[in-house]
Amino acid sequence: MRFIDRMAGIYESKLWYPIVLNLYGGLHSPSLAQLIGTVTQKVQSTEGRMLDVACGPGTYGRRVASPSREVFGIDVSMGMLRQGAAYVAQEGIPDVHFARARVEALPFEDGVFDAALCCGSLHLFTDTVIALREMARVMKPGATLSVFTFAAGDGGILKFRWVREWSRKNHGLHVFELPQVEQYLTASGFKDFQPELAGSILTFSARRQAS
Questions:
Q1: Could you tell me if 29 and 95 are in contact, meaning their C-beta atoms sit under 8 angstroms apart?
Q2: Residue 91 structural domain
Q3: Residue-wise pLDDT tens digits, 106-139
Q4: Domain assignment of residue 24, yes or no
Q5: What is the pTM of this model?
Q6: Domain for residue 126, yes or no?
Q7: Domain count, the chain
Q8: For the domain that residue 115 is a member of, what is the CATH number?
Q9: Closest CA to 55 of 13, 8, 107
Q10: Residue 4 has pLDDT above 90, yes or no
Q11: Is position 211 within any domain?
């Protein structure tokens, strides 16, 4: 956690995202700007309250906040949250709020969000289904979930099975297979899985099922 806190200042710089995306996803991975565009485009038609899970410094949530979209970002890292609050103040964005919380116990009532983002973190959660179920709990029926994570694709070091197995065993990194993601989503109350794979970079959307 101390490492993540210290990393907050460089998280959106060339010292982090380009290296991670090219190393894990492959040389033809999308840039951070392209990734933000892909993820946020999936919720651009949504208005109302938006949840940003494991938001970091609001890298994605800040880009969708507007007078018609109020973003609530949660993260376990105070360093990331403080950096996000600084960005929001510098950029004059009044519609973003931050709180320290875990995805396994979101501090919100059932069915309050019109959409949700989960970017760069689904592969880090200890239990993927528990995390997805908790996101589904706080989302309205039909609400869109937009995600960026890693999958077993054809680019970067994650294309090698031994790297994926080593990463899972030593760092708890879950590198998903596409059928596995759809299975997890279905078990958690989501439907309409729409994946896009670039190398080993996976972006997808899904919708909260009706209760």
A1: no
A2: 2-204
A3: 999 999 999 999 999 999 999 999 999 999 999 9
A4: yes
A5: 0.95
A6: yes
A7: 1
A8: 3.40.50.150
A9: 8
A10: no
A11: no
